[in-house]
Amino acid sequence: MGNELKGRMSMTVPALKVIHNKNQDNCRLIFLIGLLMAGILAVGWVPGLFRIIDVPVFLTLHVILEFLSVVVSIAVFIVAWYNYKQTRSMYELVICLTFLSVGIIDFAHTLSYNGMPDFFTPNSVDKASAYWIIGRLVQAAGILLAVFYSTKSRIKINAVMHLVVTIALTSAALVFIAADVEILPHMYREGYGQTRSKVVLEYVVIFLEAVSLLYLFVKGTNAQNAEYSSAGYLKAALVFSIFSEVAFTLYASAYDSYNLIGHIYKIGAFACILRGLFVVSLVNLYETNKVLREQKEKLAEINGQLAMVNRLKSEFLANTNHELRTPLTAIVAFAEILMDGETGPLNSTQRDYLAEINESSQRLLVEINNLLDMSKLEAGQMKVYPEMSSLDEAVSQVLRQMKPLFQQKSQQVIVSLDDNLPSILMDREKTKKVLVNLLSNANKFSPQEGEISLEAVLSDDRKSVLVCVRDDGPGLAEDQAEQVFNKFYQAEGPLMHSLSGTGIGLSLVRHFVELQGGSIWVDSQPGQGCAFCFSLPVKSGDKEAV
What pLDDT does residue 534 have? Predict the structure, then answer.
């Protein structure tokens, strides 16, 4: 019961916040409506506020306000275009294209007033008014379409093509009107003022904007998406624009106070839309960062779990391999004793069976030792203990240990060691493991009665010893040679699959060589065998390294 109550309360609190925010927005909107209405009434009722402004003064103020509105229009276009590229929202695309067109038309409107340089054809107030009313119709229709698309799903379209078409259609309309403004109803007559057609079209603009505002109140605020985090700004923009159009229906002269206040209100509308788009950008950025932060926390949790599982796996493998290695070592030892005949004579069949047991046990012992070493490496417990040692001695011990493997396949091992090889500072056991792994691979991939060579020479600069183990197996392709030292990698091919192991031997070899300050590489071509070579420095620094 308590948990259910808490759940209901947790759901109710956000809802109360939404209601609170809506009420705040509505109160601000009512205040804005009162303020704008007061401005309209003050111009008509307060003596001295309504007057015909001197043409030069009006044109200066008009150019400043119009160019400011054009700048804000282009800013709306740029921000909306950027938002659309991030969100793919039709709302932002329609706003983007609408205000691009409005900015172009308003620029033409500004240049078409008397006193401005002729725009294509001789300027007139009628021509400027025609551009004006077309710009307002495009603005009102575009905002209505954008508001309608806000509650729809994302639509994939070619935005660049729409951008080009918008610019082309707007430019064509400007040129068409400039060429023959008489094809449109007159919007303004000198000595008479604005015509009935102009006033009716202004009311059409007001109607479209009122529909957009009503749509926002009825449906828009119920939408929980990024666009409507800026719904308050869009409503304010529509209120500004409606009162701007009201002012433009009231002026008696193209140069009076109502015309001027209408332009001021229009800039306020554009500024609100621009501010709303910035809010959308910030909300989208915040939501993206929030998602990324949550994903980062989940990844950190998963990585922690994986690290724990990996540690448990390494501990399990280390314990298991240790338990397996002890009895397997005993099997190898007793098999060798029996093969030496110390316990009595053996017939040929018994010797073959014991050789098979010994070979299989040796291979299994190598793989178990590899798994144990890999577990130590992953746990960060692998250390090297360098000491001055003879490479000849390490080679002899390894060959003696692996002799049964080579005999089983009747393979010939050719050893070539420089007479002047110096004693080097190396970890004897790990170097022997490197040799065991490389010779074991050579044995495995070389054919019956094949030839394997082991060479060791002093480098030309006498700073390192170079060791190469060559086989006459199937060889490796170039892309396989680049990956062969990666953990768990196994080369492709019929023979490779039939002889494949765990895929960690060569990875361990690389680690053992690099821990001692050396390097390892492979030289191979398909059908020509492989030569695995490594170098060990003559002097390797500290006596112990992690």
Answer: 92
